[in-house]
């Protein structure tokens, strides 16, 4: 349990709760849920420019990272076709992958196919079910993809001014504006209560909020004097109590709750908002192909990690389809912006390719 780990090392409740957010981020779990300690470890492992556990901001936004990877690939001869939806994986007589078919009818032939789509999309939508072992299909269907995350992107006409550290008169960003700001995290019990509400199908009445202001570090993201605010919030169930769906009223009601909370810490925040984009779990699934809205392609619980990710006997990136490899967050070691799954899968695919 994460709570036991934090209690062992720290005394301050606000500090413990703030650290606990990284143990439940993207997970339908509370700090008291068994296995939550690993999720914290997953988020603080590694290093950035020699600093262990450090996080970095991608200049130009997260899309700039994808563009950098794309440019590195094209510089080495890769051809990239964006906005080309894949319909299914092409299979040979012996059931081996031979390329992909696009929705426009184009067929792209290849000896190897690597998929960084979720295991659910890769194996339940792009491959005929009769080509896969029944126990494997059952395992993929059973993966826990519940997600508590609602992402809210906000445009504001001035920098939030927090009661704890009011803004300078010149309106320039202060050090805390350039960090991750955690709200509603005065104690781990608050996080547990927020989780409990969502577990019963209700959006949290006092949600956990992780607030970042990318434009405080990267002014080019917003017009002069204005800013963009990224809100990573939970807990919101994929399906509301009574089987209700997330209609416009429900989405706005939850966002209003989030904004009311921020207003308590930074009076004037609501008046500064000039636009907002609300992405509930179903929105994240529909737009980005995240199963259940889960940013990790599946829960990072101990039963879905290491040799069982995405399924027992298939944690080595190879799949039941010869020549088809899984290289996204649903593969070992899981989610996060680290590229480990992709790099590992590439190494396995290269090794196999030499014998084709």
From TrEMBL:
Gene Ontology cellular component list: mitochondrial matrix
InterPro entries linked: Amino_oxidase (IPR002937), FAD/NAD-bd_sf (IPR036188)
Matches recorded under Pfam families: Amino_oxidase
Family per record: Belongs to the carotenoid/retinoid oxidoreductase family.
Designated name of the protein: Pyridine nucleotide-disulfide oxidoreductase domain-containing protein 2
Protein keywords: FAD, Flavoprotein
Keyword Protease: no
Subcellular location: Mitochondrion matrix
Source taxon at top rank: Eukaryota
Encoding gene (name): Pyroxd2
Function: Probable oxidoreductase that may play a role as regulator of mitochondrial function.
Coiled coil location: none
GO molecular function, one term: oxidoreductase activity
Residue span, Amine oxidase domain: 34-177
Subunit structure comment from the entry: Interacts with COX5B; this interaction may contribute to localize PYROXD2 to the inner face of the inner mitochondrial membrane.
UniProt-listed Gene3D superfamilies: FAD/NAD(P)-binding domain
């Amino acid at each position: 349990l994460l709570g036991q780990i934090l209690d062992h090392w720290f005394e301050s409740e606000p500090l413990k709760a703030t650290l606990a957010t990284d143990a439940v981020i993207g997970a339908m779990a509370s700090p008291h849920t068994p296995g939550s300690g690993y999720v914290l470890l997953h988020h603080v492992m590694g290093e950035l420019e020699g600093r262990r556990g450090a996080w970095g901001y991608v200049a130009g936004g997260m899309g700039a990272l994808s563009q950098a990877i794309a440019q590195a690939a094209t510089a080495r001869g890769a051809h990239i076709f964006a906005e080309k939806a894949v319909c299914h994986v092409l299979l040979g007589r012996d059931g081996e992958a031979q390329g992909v078919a696009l929705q426009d009818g184009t067929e792209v032939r290849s000896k190897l196919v690597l998929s960084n789509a979720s295991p659910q999309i890769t194996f339940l939508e792009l491959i005929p079910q009769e080509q896969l072992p029944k126990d494997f299909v059952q395992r993929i269907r059973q993966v826990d993809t519940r997600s508590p995350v609602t992402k809210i992107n906000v445009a504001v006409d001035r920098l939030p001014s927090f009661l704890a550290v009011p803004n300078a008169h010149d309106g320039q960003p202060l050090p805390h504006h350039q960090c991750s700001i955690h709200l509603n995290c005065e104690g781990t019990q608050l996080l547990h209560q927020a989780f409990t509400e969502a577990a019963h199908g209700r959006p949290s009445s006092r949600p956990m909020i992780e607030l970042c202001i990318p434009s405080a570090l990267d002014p080019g993201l917003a017009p002069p004097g204005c800013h963009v605010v990224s809100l990573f919030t939970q807990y919101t169930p994929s399906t509301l109590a009574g089987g209700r769906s997330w209609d416009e009223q429900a989405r706005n009601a939850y966002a209003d709750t989030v904004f009311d909370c921020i207003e308590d810490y930074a009076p004037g925040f609501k008046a500064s908002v000039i636009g907002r984009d609300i992405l509930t779990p179903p929105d994240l699934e529909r737009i980005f192909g995240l199963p259940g809205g889960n940013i990790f392609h599946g829960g990072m619980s101990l039963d879905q990690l290491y040799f069982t990710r995405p399924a027992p006997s298939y944690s080595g990136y190879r799949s039941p389809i010869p020549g088809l490899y899984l290289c996204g967050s649903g593969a070992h070691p899981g989610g996060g912006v680290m590229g480990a799954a992709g790099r590992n899968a590439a190494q396995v695919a290269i090794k196999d390719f030499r014998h084709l």
